[in-house]
Amino acid sequence: MERIWDKFLTERDKAVFAASGYGARGGFGKRPALLIIDVNWAFCSEGPEPILETITRWRNSCGEDAWQAMPYLKALISKARGRGIPVIYTTGIRREDNWDSGSWSWKNNRSSEDRTRPSNLDGNEIVSDIVPAPQDLVIYKQKPSGFFGTNMASYLTLLGCDSVIVTGTTTSGCVRATVLDAFSLNYRVAVAEEACFDRSQASHAINLCDMNAKYADVIKTDEILAFFETIEKDSFNLPRGSRIEVPKLSPVLETA
Question: How many domains does the chain have?
Answer without folding.
Answer: 1
